[in-house]
Amino acid sequence: MLNQPIPDFELPSTGNKVFRLSEASGKKNLVIYFYPKDDTPGCTTEGQQFRDAYTEFAGLDCEIVGVSRDSIKSHENFRKKMNFPFELLSDTDETACKLFGVIKMKNMYGKQVRGIERSTFVLDAKGILRREWRGVKVPDHVKEVLEFVKTLPREES
After folding, report:
1. How many CB atoms lie within 10 A of CB 101?
2. Which of 8, 73, 76, 150 is the most buried (most CB within 10 A)?
3. How far apart are CA 47 and CA 15, in angstroms?
4. Residue 89 maps to which CATH number?
5. Tens-digit pLDDT profile for the chain (157 aa)?
6. Which listed residue (30, 43, 72, 136) is catalytic?
């Protein structure tokens, strides 16, 4: 998938919107981060770090969206509680999860469960996948993503 265009998809989004990749790409660079579950410790920390760096990403013509299998209602509550300036996408049917190959078997309390492997993808303004991180560890991850986004060309205004 690297250095290839990502096929268009659409998902329900917070803010009573529908996210369409085709509408999001072509204007700005885009960070899509997949996380396992709203309001859990690692996912909260990761979201807070993206929130805290949001202004820097925006200054680089880069939008951020978070994706999990949680409902829109859960996302709205999580987004409001954490004051996220970016939208969260609900992928209950695993449309984007399958497209990006982020569903994995994981061990949870000694049991095998299907879940989202914490992953981040950066698409350039043309919708081409330029970088991916899989099996993400939260500490320093957002800084690494931001440093990569700084290397991407920006559209001339």
Report:
1. 12
2. 76
3. 17
4. 3.40.30.10
5. 789 999 999 999 999 999 999 988 767 999 999 999 999 999 999 999 999 999 999 999 999 999 999 999 999 999 999 999 999 999 999 999 999 999 998 887 888 889 999 999 999 988 999 999 999 999 999 999 999 999 998 665 4
6. 43
